[in-house]
Amino acid sequence: MNPAYIIVIITMIASWLIQRRLQSKFERYSQVGLQSNLSGKQIAELMLADHGINDVRVISTPGRLTDHYNPADKTVNLSEAVYADRSAAAAAVAAHECGHAVQHATAYAALQFRSAMVPALSAVSKFMPILLFAGVFMLNSTPLPLTIGVGLFALTTLFSFVTLPVEFDASKRALAWIDRRGIVTTQEHAMAKDALKWAALTYVVAALGSLATLLYYASFLMGRRRD
Questions:
Q1: What is the Cα–Cα distance from 78 to 69, expressed in whole angstroms?
Q2: Residue 106's closest CA among 169, 44, 160, 164?
Q3: Is the four-CA dihedral 101, 102, 108, 110 of positive or negative sign?
Q4: pLDDT tens digit string along 51-102?
Q5: pLDDT tens, residue by residue, 6-25
Q6: In whole angstroms, what is the distance from residue 39 CA to residue 224 CA?
Q7: Backbone torsions φ then ψ of 188, nearest 5 degrees
Q8: Pfam families annotated for this entry (predicted)?
């Protein structure tokens, strides 16, 4: 069996396990009320104000673990639970997403690079799977479709790895701020840090999975050259 294929299976299993662990951690830490009694919305607005960011809105978005920062319309989108919750988990998530807003405001290089890649990736994502699938079946007649597909998939893999420093830095900013501002106690800080650690691991596994998939498709091209 192709080693890259084995790695893909392993990363899929690891991703599932980490997602379950992440959900378990957030459910647990969502039960721990903050002594500061601040909601996710209030924490987000306070962090933005402390960094002099006045043009970013904090809004509620449907779903669970759907929290994100949108640089296009400058909104910190907090899932319904995080938006209203007053827990260690909500503090971690709200501050983390505001960490991205701070990155945006300070022109953090990795975030700028990742944002610049989004339009291109959005365009190619529609037909890249077709190129890869068709390229494998057409490989005996022509390697061109698969070569193009692998090249485009390499961009998505690069995007996954560029995302890592962006996420780690946002968490670092979040934890430093909630500690400095007195949003959390020592125990609550440990919980917030643990929650963000498991969230970060999902991005690590996703990047490794993307790399393994890239190597899997690239192996077809390498095998053809050896023939």
A1: 8
A2: 169
A3: negative
A4: 999 999 999 999 888 999 999 899 999 999 899 999 999 999 999 999 999 9
A5: 777 888 888 889 888 888 88
A6: 58
A7: -65, -35
A8: Zn_peptidase_2
- Per DSSP, 63 falls in state S
CA-wise closest residue to 22 among 197, 184, 166 = 197
Joined tokens for residue 52: 């002099």
Asked if 213 and 156 touch (Cβ cutoff 8 Å), the reply is no
Residue 161's identity, in one-letter code, is F
In the chain, where are the structural domains located?
3-33+92-224
Residues 108, 165 contacting (CB under 8 angstroms):
no
Helix ranges (DSSP H) in the chain: 3-29, 40-50, 80-84, 88-105, 109-124, 128-137, 144-180, 186-226
At 79, give phi and psi (nearest 5°).
-60, 155
Q: Which residues pair with 70 in a beta bridge?
A: 75
Which backbone phi and psi does 62 adopt, to 5 degrees? -65, 160
Q: Is 85 helix (H, G, I), strand (E, B) or coil?
A: coil
CA distances from 202 to 13, 19, 81, 86, 183 (A): 12, 7, 20, 24, 26
> Order of strands, edge to edge, in the sheet holding 68-70?
57-61, 75-79, 68-70
